[in-house]
Every structure is written in structure tokens, then in C-alpha cells.
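STRUCTURE:
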């Protein structure tokens, strides 16, 4: 878990996706952390889609090393 002062900076890339179905979706990049080293050189990229059931569908699209 990142330190409290880094929580607001975890997600640094958000792009809304427009689809023919008009279901809200976003591409998101999130920095990862490790217990041993702190901020990792890995970035998790996901697509988040509103599932219309008070939950979101999350699909991992990439795990990128800097």
C-alpha cells in the first residue's frame, strides 16, 4: 500500500472511452507499489466499465515496466 500522501497521485492517466453502446468506460493507468521498494517501476493499465449494477467491470490491458 502506498503512503497516505501518495494516494491522490496513484491514478495519473484517465481517458473516457466512447462506445456505440454508450456504456461509460475509462482507460486508467495506476502506479504500483511494493513493500520492499516503495513505488514500483510497474504501471497497471486497465479499462473500467460501468456495469449498471452498482459495480464496475475491470479488465487489465497491460502491465508496463518503465
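SEQUENCE:
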Amino acid at each position: 500500500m502506498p503512503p497516505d500522501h501518495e494516494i491522490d497521485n496513484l491514478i495519473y492517466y484517465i481517458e473516457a472511452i466512447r462506445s456505440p453502446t454508450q456504456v461509460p468506460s475509462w482507460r486508467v493507468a495506476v502506479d504500483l507499489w511494493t513493500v520492499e521498494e516503495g513505488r514500483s517501476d510497474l504501471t497497471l493499465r486497465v479499462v473500467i466499465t460501468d456495469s449498471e449494477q452498482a459495480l464496475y467491470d475491470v479488465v487489465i490491458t497491460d502491465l508496463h515496466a518503465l
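REMARK: The two ends are 20 Å apart (CA to CA).
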